[in-house]
Amino acid sequence: MSAETTGTRDFAYWRLRFRDWRHTRPFWAGLLTALGGGPIAYFPYANLKIGHLTLAMATTAGAGSLIIGVLLITLGLTMWYHHIVRVFAGVASILLALVSIPVSNLGGFLIGFLLSMIGGCLALSWAPGMTEAERTTAKHAAGYAPQEPQIKSQYGADPAQAAEPSHGADASESWSDGSTNGHVDANGGRNSAG
Questions:
Q1: Is 41 exposed, middle or buried (0-12, 13-18, 19+ CB in 10 A)?
Q2: What long-range pairs does 147-154 form, CB within 8 A, spacing at least 24?
């Protein structure tokens, strides 16, 4: 029996699976938003001990801080598992981060505020990418085929013709008002008026 038939997978397999999963959703936006909800919910209920001195951080809006923190964690998970609503989750996390400044000890001492704001902005700016199969399909549909680069000049496909420009009637077509139709006679940087 081989390792493949028993169903065991090595670390590289799971790392690649996680990488594929991570690239199909706003992973960092969800992570930062969820991490930002932690300090916002925690600090109003925390007791800071400095030696024998206990400093209580509790505010009158402790329940509001807990609700904001839990909602930010939920929005972070929503960005991961329902990335189709990433715009709503991003806007909601930005608004909750702003509300946390007066409600929750300056937004969890600015730690939770900054993490949630950055996560919300990342969620708004994230756009789903194309998978390798979609990229290949799009290239074939567009008729893309890798080709050798071709040297072209305005005088023709042959670079030797570029050394000796022709000054015939077709080099610069004039209209009745004296203007050209977009063609410029490059005669040493001078245009002929005639």
A1: buried
A2: 154/186
Indicate the pTM of the whole model: 0.61
Look up residue 147 and give its two tokens: 């080709």
Q: CB neighbours of 91 closer than 8 A, spacing ≥ 6?
A: 120, 124
Rounded (5°) CA angle 134-136-141? 90
Q: Which residues contact 96 (CB under 8 A, 6 or more apart)?
A: 68, 71, 72, 75, 116
SS3 label, residue 152: coil
Task: List, in sequence order, every residue forming a beta bridge with 187; answer none if it has no partner.
Answer: 190
Bigger pLDDT: 178 vs 73: 73
